[in-house]
Amino acid sequence: MVEVRIEDWVLTIDKEKTKALYMTHMQEGDTLAYQNFLIANEKLGVELLHFSNMLGLNLQQPTLLNAFPVEGQKIMYSGYYTVCGEIVDGEMDAWDVIIGEHCFSLVEEESVIALIEPHFQIGFEVVLEWLLPQPLELMKK
């Protein structure tokens, strides 16, 4: 495990186990919303890539993904990523880390993945454009 410091967070991370977790877990839910999430997130900024690499995350594959239409042709995505490791220090449920349009928070959620290892979740929110050719109205509500 390595210690990672991101703003006010101090975390111990097992990057290899976290990466392996994302190789085995597949996202469930509305397929159109998820397809749009993948396309809209394709061009991640350097700072966002650095953040995900520090934690061993695949930002294209959250553990939990919710999607809600908002004004215009946009969708607010929220959910969380699971990280193998422990929180040493950091406030829970405070949107501490903001990178571009993405907001991140340490959250306490009941995991949808059964893990024996120590783990925690990093919640996120981001509003992205609807880029699919299908109308936004086809997305399940």
Question: How does this model look, in words?
Answer:
The protein is α+β, with helices and mostly antiparallel strands. The protein has helices at 15-24, 31-40, 46-55, and strands spanning 2-6, 9-13, 64-70, 74-89, 97-99, 102-107, 119-129. Strands 1, 2, 3, 4, 5, 6 and 7 form a seven-stranded antiparallel beta sheet that branches.
The secondary-structure class comes to: alpha+beta
- How many helical stretches? 3
In whole angstroms, the N-to-C terminal distance is 40 Å
Rounded to an integer in angstroms, the radius of gyration calculated over CA atoms is: 15 Å
Estimate the strand proportion. 35-45%
Which bin fits the share of residues in helices? 10-25%
> How many E-type strands?
7
Oligomer: single chain
Report the order of strands and helices.
EEHHHEEEEE
Shape: globular
Q: Stretches where pLDDT falls below 50 for ≥5 residues?
A: none
Query: Main β-sheet: number of strands, strand sense, barrel status?
Result: 7 strands, antiparallel
Question: Averaged pLDDT, please?
Answer: 86
Quick overview:
Helix content is 21%, strand content 38%. By secondary structure, the chain is an alpha+beta fold.
What topology emerges from the helices and strands here?
Blueprint: E1 2-6, E2 9-13, H1 15-24, H2 31-40, H3 46-55, E3 64-70, E4 74-89, E5 97-99, E6 102-107, E7 119-129
Antiparallel strand pairs: 1-2, 2-4, 3-4, 4-7, 5-6, 6-7
What are the defining features of this structure?
single chain; 141 residues; seven-stranded antiparallel β-sheet; 3 helices
